[in-house]
Amino acid sequence: MAHMTTGSGLLLFQNLHVRKILRGFVSFFEWFGDLGVFFGRLVWATITPPYEVKEFLHQFDELGAKSLPLAALAGAATGVVITLSTRDSLVRFGAKSFLPAVAIFSLIKESGPVITGLVVSGRAAAGIGAELGAMKVTEQIDAMEASAVNTYKYLAATRVLACVLMLPLLTLVTDFCGVLTGWLTHTLMDGISLRLFLQHGFKGMTFKDFLPPTFKTMVFGVIIGVVACFQGMRTSGGTEGVERAATSSVVLASLLIILADVLLVRLILTFCS
Hints:
- The chain is an all-alpha fold.
- The chain has helices at about 1-45, 55-65, 70-90, 100-135, 140-145, 150-190, 195-200, 205-215, 215-235, 240-270.
- Helices cover about 85% and strands about 0% of the residues.
- It is elongated.
């Protein structure tokens, strides 16, 4: 009898475990389905008039201009780290003269865009998710819809467009600060003029090396804006829901940026080489 009871309990536990896994899969695909519907409505709201120009400019300032110091600091730190780590490796192989080129190519082609996307994701995605989540749980979004305001156009489209347009500009700031601090680090150790550093660093670089990595950050902007707006506008559960919306916005946006970068690098190598 005890054996039968133990076997029944084990079977019940296994069934509950399987059901939990199945519910997780269903929730996963439901989330992507809801995200696809949200994205479709967002695209339609973006391309159809009237356009919320004033709100867009406000969001561009909130999400773009106020992210500038963060992007500059991240770029400066990245330039120092790349120069120091690269110099140590190149000295071992007797190729120290290639340091400017390796540092600048690494920063502009990959490190700068990705660092910018992740840093802005941490600030902008959390801000958008928390702001829209708070508006959702306090029924402000419902009140706007009751007043015939298109929330997809006014709240979501303006923020997504601001993210898309600000990312390439912030990437330029990150690259500039990284190159500048890379030169300062190099000149403190070996002594090299800025002109010579730039001449060696940009030797052989073309627009095909610079433009695709910079403009791929527009995709990062789409990811940040869409995920953060989606998570914020579907918030429920009061203040805990707002916290979950902000956290999930950052985590999902950062993860999708990394995954998107893998695909974008492959596409760039295929079509722009």
